[in-house]
Design goal:
Elements lengths: L1 E9 L2 H11 L3 E4 L6 E6 L2 E7 H8 L13 E6 L3 H8 L5 E8 L4 E7 L5 E7 L1
Parallel strand pairs: 1-4, 5-8
Antiparallel strand pairs: 1-5, 2-3, 3-4, 6-7, 7-8
Length: 126
C-alpha cells in the first residue's frame, strides 16, 4: 500500500480551502473553494480536504454535527487492486464499507479502521 495523502474532514470546507490556499500558500492540485473536495501539494505529500458530512456518507458511518466522535481525518492509501487488498485484510480488520466504484470520483474504494478507530481508505483509480 502507498500512503498518498492525509485527508482533513471539515465542517467549514470553503473557509478551510481558502486558509490552506491563501494563508498557507499551498498549491492546489485539485478542486476549488466550492467543490467540497480539494487537494493541495505540500512538498512531496498531498493534503486532502473534504466535507466531513460527505465523507461520513461515503464511509457509511452516519453524521451529526453534535457527535464529537465523527471522523476529522482519514489516511488514504493507493493499492493496485481494492478487491485483492480487501480479500487479504478482511479476516484481519473490520471493514466499514465493502469495495465500491465511485464513478463520479474515478476510483474504487473501501474503508476500515485501525485499532484506535482512525478511518483508513484504500483506493484504486478506475
Amino acid at each position: 500500500m502507498e500512503l498518498t495523502h492525509t485527508r482533513l474532514l471539515t465542517d467549514n470546507y470553503k473557509e478551510c480551502f481558502l486558509f490552506y490556499r491563501d494563508v498557507l500558500g499551498f498549491e492546489v492540485s485539485w478542486g476549488d473553494e466550492n467543490s467540497l473536495y480539494g487537494q493541495f501539494r505540500v512538498g512531496t505529500v498531498s493534503l486532502g480536504l473534504f466535507e466531513r458530512k460527505q465523507m461520513a456518507e461515503a464511509a457509511g458511518t452516519g453524521f451529526s454535527l453534535d457527535d464529537p466522535h465523527i471522523d476529522r481525518t482519514a489516511l488514504i492509501f493507493k493499492v493496485k487492486s481494492v478487491e485483492d487488498k480487501y480479500n487479504e485484510l478482511k479476516e484481519k480488520v473490520t471493514f466499514v464499507t465493502k469495495p465500491v466504484a465511485q464513478a463520479a470520483w474515478g476510483i474504487k474504494v473501501a474503508h476500515f479502521r485501525d485499532p484506535d478507530g482512525a478511518l483508513i481508505e484504500i483506493y484504486e483509480n478506475l
